[in-house]
Write a structure and sequence with these properties.
Length: 276
């Protein structure tokens, strides 16, 4: 189990992915993203998650270049945006992302959303990028069970990761079970439900018992559920405190209480019903 910030899970192709990382969704290009990525790397983070649509890949790349940490010690994720889906356009979008990041390979590349009529072709483009050695692992984001089944049927490679909205109000048990059966690592975005869970009485009580913050309790719950997590923050002290979750363990009773908070409630779009 994850017992430090550098701890990794092994994806089904043998690549090691950190259990914990920094997400940069809605972090502004330029100084803000450069500073937050540098702060995270200084604090011991190895995994940084961006996407073409975030518009901050250049800043992430600059921070990586200036961090002084060898490239092979870092785990960098990006994603192909919906407007670029399809085989040739995905290859082209990947090359653009790589150029913006200033890197010669990615550790993980994801299909950002299951765009109807396009995500299978897009997946085939990712398989090619993987086979060409340009990316160490490939996966999907916001895929439900039926989307995953389509890809498993049409493709030749099982996705290594599925990054989805995941938090105590949206535990996605069926999806998580399906991913486990197929050796697809589940990864959480919006693990704190954009801050909406931080005042939940159950979580607050567990936090007090462990002398931790509510955010730390939720992030620890992710890890003990074997879900990779990438909380976003631009504040240095928050980046550091989010990662201070390796010196305690939630009890089975704590885990059960948090699991029971599920309402199947999303803060982001529904993967079966989005129009972007």
């Amino acid at each position: 189990m994850a017992n430090n910030l550098q701890a990794t899970t092994t994806l089904h192709n043998g690549v090691k992915m950190p259990w914990f990382g920094l997400g940069v969704f809605k972090v502004s290009e330029g100084d803000e993203v450069i500073q937050s990525v540098k702060d995270a790397i200084r604090a011991g983070y190895k995994s940084i998650d961006t996407a073409a649509v975030y518009g901050n890949e250049e800043g992430v790349g600059k921070a990586i270049a200036e961090s002084g940490v060898p490239r092979e010690e870092l785990f960098i994720t990006s994603k192909v945006w919906n407007a670029d889906q399809g085989f040739d356009s995905t290859i082209s979008a990947f090359n653009t992302s790589l150029k913006k990041l200033g890197l010669d390979y990615l550790d993980l590349y994801l299909v950002h959303w299951p765009v109807k009529g396009k995500y299978v072709e897009t997946w085939k483009a990712l398989e090619k990028l993987y086979q060409d050695g340009l990316v160490r692992a490939i996966g999907v984001s916001n895929f439900q069970v039926h989307h995953l089944k389509d890809v498993l049927e049409a493709g030749s490679i099982v996705p290594m990761v599925n990054q989805v909205e995941y938090h105590p109000h949206l535990t996605q048990t069926e999806l998580h079970d399906f991913c486990k059966q197929n050796k697809i690592q589940l990864e959480a975005w919006s693990p704190l439900k954009q801050g909406q869970l931080l005042n939940d009485p159950t979580i607050v009580a567990i936090a007090e018992a462990h002398q931790k913050t509510p955010a730390q309790i939720i992030l620890r719950w992710d890890l003990q559920n074997e879900v990779v997590t990438i909380p976003k923050s631009v504040k240095k002290d928050r980046i550091i405190s989010n990662a201070d979750i390796f010196d305690f363990q939630l009890t089975e009773e704590d885990m059960q209480k948090i699991n029971e908070l599920n309402k199947n409630e999303r803060v982001g779009p529904d993967p079966d019903n989005f129009d972007f």
